[in-house]
Amino acid sequence: MSPDPNTHALPVPDAEALAHSDRLAAAIRAEITTSEGGAIPFSRFMELVLYAPGLGYYSAGASKFGAEGDFVTAPELGSVFASCVADAVAPVLQELAAGDAALPGGASGSVFLELGGGTGAFAEVALQRLLELDALPGRYAILEPSAQLRQRQHERLQQRLPPALFARVEWLDGPLPYDWNGVLFANEVLDALPTPRFAIRDGEVCEEHVVVDGDRFARVLRPADAFLGGAVRNLERRLERPFEEGYRSELLPQLPYWIQAVSGGLKRGAMLFVDYGYPRGEYYQPGRSDGTLRAFYRHRMHHDPLLYPGLQDLTASVDFTALAEAGVAAGFDFAGYCSQASFLLGNGLAGVLARIERIDDTAEHQRRSNEVKRLTLPSEMGERFQVMGFEKDVEFGVAFLAGDLSFRL
Q: Is there a contact between 103 and 180 (Cβ–Cβ < 8 Å)?
C-alpha cells in the first residue's frame, strides 16, 4: 500500500527523536527478517511501535498528552469528565461498601482499577470527588505499562492529593492477581489495542503483514490463519452480507480474552469503557472500505501507520457491538450504552454547570465553559466518543438512562 500523501505536511521530528525512531525501526526490521516468510502481522507491528519496552510510543519518554503531545484526552481538559465519571460509579462503590466482606484469598474493601492512567489527571479529580460523595474505594489501582507515565502519575498525585488519599493509590504491572470487588475503568484504551487488519482478495480472507522494503516498511497481504479467517466469516454472517472484493478493515477476535484477562477476579462490581467507535453495522458499512486505522502525530491525523515508528500514536475505532458481546461473554451483564454527551448529562453535569455559573473570574468561567463544550458538542467529543458499561451483582444501569443507544447495537 502507498503511504499517505498528506504526511508531507507533518512536522519533521528533531534529530534525537529520529534517532530514537531509527532504533525501534532496526529492532522491528530484525524481527521481520527472522520471521517466517520475512513478514510479521500488522497487529505485531502495532504492538511493537506502541509498546516495545523502552522504545514504543507508550513505553518511552516522549510527551503524548496536551499541546506538546499528539492528542488531548477528556481528563486532560479539566475536571469535568472525571467528576462525572465519579458521580456515575459512586452508587456502585457505596453499594459494595454496604455489603463489604473480605473475599477468600482476595482483598477486603473495594478497588477502583484504572487502565492506563495518562498524566494522572483523571485519578486526581476522581479520588477527590469520590471523597466528597462518601464513596472512596479501599484502593485505587492504576495498570500502567509505561514506566515514564507511571513516574509522572506518581509525582502528580503525590504533590496534589492529601497524604491519606495518595496512600490509597498503587501501580500494577498486570491485572489484579486475586479476587476483588469494585470498578474497572478504561478511557481511550481499547482503540490502542494492537489490531489485526483483514482484507478480501479473490474472495478469500487475507491478513495485512508488514515487510521490509529497502529502507522502509511496507504492508502486504498474506492468507489469514484459521482464527482470523473464521472470525471474518462469522462477522459476515452477523452482518448478513459478505464483504466486497478489496474491502479492508480491523477486527479484534481476541477482545473477549482481553476483557477476561483485565477484569481478572472481579467478582462483584462494574466495568466502564469510554472510547470512539461505532456499532457493528456502522463500523463495517460498505463505504468504510479501508477500515478506521489512523495515525496521530503532533495533533495531526494521517493514514500512514508505518511512518516514524515509536513517535506517533496508532489507533483504530471500537466496534461497540463486539465489546458488548465480549463483556457478556466474560460473565457480566450489559448495563448500558450511550454517547459521551448523554453520559455526562446523566451523571452530574448539571451540577458542574451550576458551579461554573457561580465562578466570578471571567477567564476561568470561559475556560470551564469551553471544556464542557468540547466534551459534549456533537462536533467535538460529545457524539464521537461513546460509553458502555457492564455490571455483576450491582446496579449500574441507572448511569445510562440519559440517551440510551443500546438499540443500535
A: yes
- 8 A C-beta contact, residue 351 and residue 342: no
What is the identity of the amino acid at 365? H
- Count how many Cα atoms sit within 13 Å of the Cα of residue 26 in the half-sphere of its side chain: 7
Measure the CA–CA gap between 211 and 51, rounded to whole angstroms. 19
Coil, strand or helix: which one is 335? strand
At 69, the pLDDT band (50, 70, 90 cuts) reads very low
- What is the C-alpha separation between 33 and 43, in angstroms, rounded? 17
Q: Tell me if 369 sits within 8 A of 352, measured CB to CB.
A: no
**Structural domains counted in the chain:** 1
Beta bridge partners of 404: 338
Report if residue 29 sits inside a domain: no
In a domain, 397, yes or no: yes
* Alpha-carbon gap, residue 189 to 279, rounded angstroms: 17
User: Has residue 326 got a pLDDT over 80?
Assistant: yes
N-term to C-term CA, the chain? 32
Which CATH number covers residue 106? 3.40.50.12710
Is 351 inside a domain boundary?
Answer: yes
The model's pLDDT over 129-170, given as tens digits with 9 standing for 90+, comes to 999 999 999 999 999 988 888 999 999 999 999 999 999 999
Please state, as a whole number, how many other Cβ atoms lie within 10 Å of the Cβ of residue 319.
27
Q: Say how many CA atoms lie within 13 Å of 407 toward its Cβ.
A: 3
Predicted confidence at residue 66, as pLDDT, reads 42
Average pLDDT over residues 17-31: 95
Q: Does residue 207 belong to any structural domain of this protein?
A: no
Burial class, 375, CB count within 10 angstroms (exposed 0-12 / middle 13-18 / buried 19+): buried
- Structural domain boundaries, residue 338: 74-192+257-278+318-408
d(CA 130, CA 136): 5
Closest CA to 81 of 122, 120, 111: 122
Is pLDDT of 106 > 70? no
Residue 9 is classified by DSSP as G
Q: 298 to each of 47, 66, 194, how far by Cα in Å?
A: 20, 10, 21
Grid coordinates representing 204?
478469500
